[in-house]
Write a structure and sequence with these properties.
alpha+beta; 4 helices
Length: 163
């Protein structure tokens, strides 16, 4: 499923205005994760507010925040690697407008309130897993697990001393 952001949200209010429509589907929440991580690399506080919204009733812990800081502090290009058009060769410069493809994971979550999707990074060999969770009462989908999304990828060509 493809998600295109012609007016990329840069503020939390802009993000919240599109989140309500997208979070009704697990794929939409996963796409918003990439948007929030991209914002995080430019404005940490706004990115954290977006991520907390995506986490729903289970906000980011201090450990989660430190994990993100450790993974993204020297890899500001990582979120862009999930967007269409971004490659190692073009230093992960995404196409405009910012677009993310989200695919269903072939492995079932085995629980009614969990859903698994995968997002491809052009800097990784395999698509990365995102697990989403919905309250038993239904409604929006929230982030549950996504450690692979912020795992290392191939460095951009401009940063490769052997490139």
């Amino acid at each position: 499923m493809r998600f295109t952001f012609p007016d990329f949200p840069r503020t939390n209010d802009e993000f919240l205005s599109i989140a309500s429509d997208l979070m009704v589907r697990p794929e939409g929440t996963a796409a918003l994760l990439i948007v929030a991580l991209k914002v995080y690399t430019k404005d940490r506080e706004t990115g954290l507010a977006m991520l907390n919204h995506l986490h729903g009733p289970r906000p980011l812990s201090n450990h989660d925040k430190q994990f993100l800081r450790d993974r993204l502090s020297d890899k500001l290009y990582l979120p862009d690697s999930y967007a269409l058009g971004a490659t190692v060769e073009n230093n992960y410069t995404p196409n405009e407008p910012f677009t993310v493809d989200v695919a269903h994971d072939p492995v079932s979550a085995n629980e009614d309130n969990l859903f698994r999707v995968r997002i491809t990074s052009s800097g990784a060999d395999t698509p990365r897993l995102v697990v989403l969770r919905r309250k038993k009462s239904g409604g929006d989908w929230f982030l549950w697990e996504y450690p692979g999304i912020v795992s290392g990828i191939r460095i951009p060509k401009a940063e490769d001393p052997w490139g």
